[in-house]
Amino acid sequence: MSILELRDLSVTYRTEGGDVPAVRGVNLTIEAGDTVGLAGESGCGKSTIAGAVLRLLPAGTRVDGQVLLDGEDVYQMNPGRLRAVRWTSAAIVFQGALHSLNPVHRVGAQIAEAIRVHGSVDGRAAATRVGELLEQVGIPASRASRYPHQLSGGQRQRVLIALALACEPKLLIADEPTTALDVMVQAQVLDLLASLQRDHGLAMLFITHDLSVLTHACRRLAVMYAGRIVETGLGVDVFRDPQHPYSRALAGAFPTIGDPSSRLRPSGLAGDPPDPSALPTGCPFHPRCTVAVDACRTTDVQLRPVGSASSEASAACVHVEPR
Amino acid sequence: MRLRFVIGKVLGALSTLVFVVVVNFFLFRVVNDDPVESMFRGRNLSAEQKDRLRQQFNLDGSKLQQFWAYIRELLQGNLGISLQSRRPVTTEIGEALWPTIALVGTATTLSMVIGVAIGIRAGWRRRSAFDVGSTTFSMFTYSVPDFWLAMLALGLFSVQLGIFPTGGLQDAGTTATGLPLLLDQLHHMALPCLVLAIAYVGEYAIVMRSSMLDTVREDYLQLARAKGLRDVEVRRRHAVPNAVLPVVSLSALNFGFVLSGSIAVESIFSWPGLGQATLEAIRGPDFPMLQGLFLLFSAAVILANLAVDLLYGYLDPRVGGR
Question: Would you say B221 and B239 are in contact if contact means Cβ atoms under 8 Å apart?
Answer without folding.
Answer: yes
